[in-house]
Structure formats: C-alpha cells, structure tokens
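Submission sheet (multi-component)
Chains listed below:
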Amino acid sequence: MKRIVNYAPGKGATIILGALPLILIAAVYLASSQARLAINPNDKLMPSPASFIAAMGRMAGQTDPLSGETLFWLDTWLSLARLFTSLGISLVLGLVGGVLVGFIPYLRSSFGPALAVLSLIPPLAILPILFIVFGLGEFSKIVLIVFGIAPFIMRDIAIRVSELPREQIIKAQTLGASTWQMIVHVVLPQVLPRLIDALRLSLGAAWLFLIAAEAIASQGGLGYRIFLVRRYLAMDVILPYVAWITLLAFIMDYALRRLSIAAFPWNNVREN
Amino acid sequence: MTHILIDDVWKEYGDITILERINIELPDHEFLVIVGPSGAGKTTLLRMLLSQEIPTRGRILIDGEPIAAEPMKDRGVVFQRYSVFPHKTVLGNVMLGPEWQGSAFLGRLFGAKRRALKARAMALLERVGLAESANKYPHQLSGGMQQRLAIAQALIMQPKVLLLDEPFGALDPGTRKAMHVLVRELWEENAMTIVMVTHDLSEAFLLGTRVIAVDKYRNDPQAQHRFGATITKDFDVRPRIVRDSWRQETGRKPAVEAEAGTGETPAMPSGASLSLGLA
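Outcome: structure written.
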C-alpha cells in the first residue's frame, strides 16, 4: 500500500476522470428535468434539451426590428466588440504603464502607491459614477471593464519587471544600451509572456464586468439578453446563452495559451 | 593600453564600513584576481569598478579619467548567473551590443552592416566553441556554454577591462578547467585587463598575474562593522618582467627551433609554487 499521493492515473484514465464531473452534472440535470416535466409539462425552470434547441432556433431566426440582424448574432457581436475593445485598451495601458512603473525608479515612487490604491477600488461600486459622468452609452461600459482589469495587469507587469535579474540590466548597460533600448529589447520581450498570462487571468473579471454593465443599461448584448428574458423565466434561453458565453471564454483562453507557446519558444523551458 | 587606478577608495553604508583604504594600480594587460572570505567585500570592490556601486570616498580612474557613475561599455562584465538574455538566441545575444551601438532607436542593423556584424559574431562564437549552437536559446545550453556565451557577448564590445564575478562558481570541475584555459587564452589574444573575483585559491593562482586578498585587518568585538576590509595581501604571481621575457622567448622560438631542431616550448611561469599566508 503506497501513500495516496503516489498513485497517479494513466493517460486514458485522466481523460475519463476529467469528463466524469461534467457528464455527472448533465445526467443529474436531464434526470431532474425529465422528472419535473413528467409532473408539469409546462415547467419553465428545467427545460428539456429539445426546448433549448427550439429557443435557440427562435433567437437565431428572429431579427432585431432596429438593426435587422438576428438577435443571437447581434448579441454576440455587441458583447464581443465591447469586450475586445476594452481588453485591447487594458492591454496597452497595462503594458506601457506596467513597464514604465516597474522599470523607472522615479515613476515607481510616483505612481506605485496610487496604482495599488486604484486597483483596490471595487469597479462595480463606481459603476453609478461612470453612468452619471459618461452617460449610459458604450463608453461607460468600456471604462468599467478597463477600470476593472487594467490596474491589475499594470501591477502584475510592474512586479514582473522588477523581478528581472539585476544582472541582466547591468549587463545591458555594459553593452551600451540606453534606457529606451533596455525597455524595448530587454524588458518588453521578457514580460510579454506574462502579459498574456495576466490577460488570461483577467478574462473572467472582464466578462463579469461586461455582463454587469449590460444587465443594468444596454440595448443588446449577451448579458442584456439574459437579464431581459429573466422576466419571463425563460430558462430555455438563459442556459444556452450561459453555455455560449462559457464556450467563448474557453476558446479565448485556449487561443491565448497556444499563442503564448507559439510566440515565445524561449519561455517554454524554465530555468531550473 | 589600459591603466586602472583605485585611489583610496572607501565603501560605507551609514555606520557600517565595508571596504576602506583600497589602493591598487593596474598597468596594462594585467589579470587581477581578488580573493577573500565570503562577505569581505570582494564583490563590492568589483561592483565599484563596474559603477554598480559608487564609492563613498576616493576615486577610480581608468586611463587617468574618473569612471562614469553608471555601467558603461568600457567595462564588460560576466556574472555567475543571469549574464545572458534568455529571449535572444546565442547569435542574437552576441550581436546585441554592436546593434545597440549602431542603431539608437531600432536597435537593429540591416543589410551589409548586419552581415558584417554577423560574420564578426560568428567568428567570436567559433572562438569560444559555440558556432554550432548559434541558433539555440540560452536555456538549451549547459552552464559552461552559457558562461562562454556571456564572455563572447562582453568581448564583442572590446571593453577596456573585463570584470568577472565568480564566473565559474556554478560549473562542474571539468567544465571549469576548460573555461580556465579559454579565459587564459582570450586574455593573451586580446591583450586586455581582466579583474576576477573568486574564492577558489588554486583558480586565482592558476589564472592571475596578480592576486590580492581582501579581508578585515582588525576586528572590534564590540563594533563588528567599525572596521572594513582592505587589501591584506598583494602578490605578483607573474611579474611583468618574467612575462615579457617569456613572450620574447616564444617569439624567438621558431628561429631557435630552426637552428637547434628542438620543439620544447618554454613553460609559462606558474605561481603554483608560491603559497599564500591566508588563514
């Protein structure tokens, strides 16, 4: 009898074990859905898979009277546009700000504490302020997401920059590098993998802020739709939408991970 | 020609004295090795030569000019670790310095200049035995290869003085021996000044032309930090006059050989027979 920590599953068993909880959840849902529908065929809380397909067919078939586009794709497009715009802005802010604050001692002293305070303000608490100041349009939603994740990315990058071995910076100077050259050729390339990691970690938060902002004031978007059909207890729309959002988030995460491996071959094997 | 003068240099942190009254004069083409117990301040001395640390008193002159207050390309360095850039290939690492020199904004050369630099870098890599690994990343190299890369990277800048901070400390004994030979040969070929810190005495006397020991000369039990370390021993392991005559002998050798037909090479005077009075 070995210790428990010394038993490891094989390759096939790993896949089966990983799928097991998901299959279990699906099975429990299907069983309880069937049981409820047997008692009340009009039950709205746990619809059958057939009604999911019917509802999604409706959403994909129905066109928005304003734009003339199908609701489902319009919602997806609106949400992703908001998400990518704010992620892009946050990336640029986080990278530029993080490298400068992490690398230049005077900037670190000036902005380090402010950044720490700023990143501790709960973004949703200032959502009303954003709505008051910027109105209910797209801008305040994007500001909310940027405010939620940019300080996090910035701090993360700044910490990573300050963790670069001092020897490397000295060596670069003995090779005649200027501050600009050190930033571009020594610091930036080495924090880019970390930037992708930080982005992956903040994807969850970005979706959270996106859906919160859409739920409160919007005229379209995945979060808007979920909160809209909540009034009719339309679980047959909500649940597929949640699954769709999860799938989108998963694809983004996966793509970023592949990108990180492909773009930074030197980073794959860590120093011992 | 490089002439280094360390003139009455002190290093203090508040009340704590690390080094005091350091005076050395290094003529051209010297291989100075600094030995001493851990924490004595030998690395601090090297860092002051590098301007990574600034002396609190005294001055350091190279060729009669005070050194810049920040690391500059006149002083190359190889540390024990982290001396190379992990995100650049071997060739990229060596080309980095001249590329920075040649292009202030982009830090990249193009066309004929790039080809010339590449040829120079490859020749240097060939010399240190890394030509086959030119396109690998540092993490794919062994510790000894990484140090050879760090040396090549520093040498391409043709620094006046090369500073080595325990460069072989993390290497296994076999690799270390090979590195000794390489560094020795590079020192001869490039006729440069090397300052090296080590705590391996045999290494010090094998490589150095001059060995200094840095240690506390006085210890006050009531105030451990009252007295800093200074140069307690100074050995001319291979005095210049011996080296010069040796070089002349080797220069004369082909002629002598042609006459007498002997293939004997005069051995480099070794300091191994000298013994240090270190406790």
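Remark: Chain A has ten helices and no strands.
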